């Protein structure tokens, strides 16, 4: 596993289809927020060319045009703050909130399609939609991972996979088997998409293998035993909080509150 230092504390990984650069996106996003007439605070953003969707603590989503730099639409989604966003292939907006509900809305008709409810009163923190299976996954503030079938709008399972907040759930494009889960306890978990059972849990060793250029470090990863419960005895240096993750072929990229980016390689 490789560790790369970062000058900021990243909380999300942006899509690769940004029009110019991440810097451009951040500058435009900041300008959107400063130009917004709302006194509410932005909580989360999602980019879907050519629009940026921003969730606010007043429960609304504001849609900004990336090129005209203006707010084109305000969609009321929740009575509580919006905490996470994603967009389906048919342009439906899915958003989670601190109330524990997930609302699906059609931005063209400005109508709510449905509301999905979890048993977690402390809120949904992250969403991930698998377009190939039409399954929606969510991570909660108390360590639960949920799965809904969007075709039937029914919850298929809900499992507590972590004792603390889950900040990110992701899967590899087209994969219907495994879901990567990361959160405040810093353990990278892999969960079965079909039933929510934990397949494996990983951390990195404290021992440094090499640091050839000073810009990155190599460390050895370690899989924890099944049903491992003694998380508190693992040094936090081996498990800094995972704020976001992305999944590739036998690789996972994670960002951390320690302001570094880690590339996990699996064989």
UniProtKB/TrEMBL annotation:
Keywords: Nucleus, Repeat, Ribosome biogenesis, rRNA processing, WD repeat. Gene3D superfamilies: YVTN repeat-like/Quinoprotein amine dehydrogenase. SMART domains: WD40. It is found in: Nucleus, Nucleolus. One of its GO terms (molecular function) is RNA binding. GO terms for cellular component: catalytic step 2 spliceosome. The keyword NAD does not apply. SUPFAM superfamilies: WD40 repeat-like. Residues 67-163 form the WD repeat-containing protein 75 second beta-propeller domain. It comes from the Eukaryota. Pfam families: Beta-prop_WDR75_2nd. This is WD repeat-containing protein 75 second beta-propeller domain-containing protein. It comes from Arachis hypogaea. The lineage of its organism: Eukaryota, Viridiplantae, Streptophyta, Embryophyta, Tracheophyta.
